[in-house]
Amino acid sequence: MPSTSPYLDTDFSFDRPGVLAKAGVLDSRKARIMGSATGHYRAQTVHAGLQYFDCNLQFPEPLKIDKVLPQSLCIVQLFDGTWQHTVDGKLNRYTPGQLHLLGLGESLEAQDQLPADSHARMAGVRIAGHYLQELVEDEAQLLPLLALTAEGMRFDQLSQCPAVSRLLQQLYLSPYTGGLRRLHCESLSLAIVLELARHLIGPAQPSHTPDRGLRDLAIEARRLLDAQLSAPPTAASLARQLGVGETTLRRAFRKAFGRPILQYVREQRLELARRLLLERRWQVSQVAYQVGYANPANFCHAYKAHFGHPPGSE
Questions:
Q1: Could you tell me if 222 and 94 lie in one domain?
Q2: Which CATH number covers residue 166?
Q3: pLDDT tens by residue, 250-305
Q4: Are residue 228 and residue 135 in the same domain, yes or no?
């Protein structure tokens, strides 16, 4: 992030109320923070001018943060809880379960203010104004992104952009650590930028190329499935999205990967569940919900059938 940004790269977890001013979330020279919290917060610059962050924090006392935000674009998914701030005198409220955009065309004063006993679980990406300008210079089709930071402040809720929401969910649940996590965060953060630009540009015209290879079709279907394992599309909706018949898609997928779409999704869900369990950060029921099982008992049965032992033994 450029030096004008108050946000710092940090990673902390408080088991008991800790003073946020000492946690390294914000540069004390550019912001003032009052209040304490329990839970986790992490932020990482994944590319010059591009920072990923997420948190799951509870605030036992009122939270107040005064800061000056630079020209930038922030993409935020509030999973649950409450978040609100005032920017340039205007109050912005974030809706749980929705995706939001905050575009700033210049440096503006901002204040976060939350009541005691509130909480916030969210993830997001901050894009510096200078990085947006670089992107547009390289690719003019990304101009709609820069337009979000044209002047003043712009605050929008995006209700029809599920691809970006899924990518933020994947980042929040990333099973990796160390260098692999950094690569994962960088690739998905850049994918968020591209998906947002695609959303702003509008839907692309469907391809009707008659000689499209079946293997390429299967690989694209697998990519789409991997991006939304917790709530995968049906074979019919996936076929419509790819512009082919459902029978053609099923045949191409089985030929390329040796198993039906449904079996592939089940196996990938369980492999992801195993990686999450080995981190020992969540209970079995929590992992079950994260990988798309509404009933933990069904998850345990499927896990044992696949790996030969129950998930609790991990």
A1: no
A2: 2.60.120.10
A3: 989 988 889 899 889 888 889 888 888 888 888 888 888 888 888 888 888 888 88
A4: no
pTM above 0.70, yes or no: no
Cα–Cα distance for residue pair 292/239, rounded to 1 Å? 21
Q: Determine the structural domain holding residue 222 and report its residue range.
A: 214-258
Label residue 306 left, alpha or beta by phi (over 0 means left) and psi (-120 to 50 means alpha). Answer: alpha
Residue 99 neighbours by CB under 8 Å, 6+ apart: 75, 76, 77, 157, 158, 159, 161, 164, 165, 168
The pair of three-digit structure tokens given for residue 191, joined into one six-digit string = 């994918």
Cα 94 from Cα 155, distance rounded (Å): 10
Q: Print burial letters for 123-134: b (CB count within 10 Å at least 16), e (below 16).
A: bbbbbbbebbee
* 5 within domain boundaries: no
Are residues 218 and 191 both part of a single domain? no
The neighbouring-strand residues paired with 32 are 66
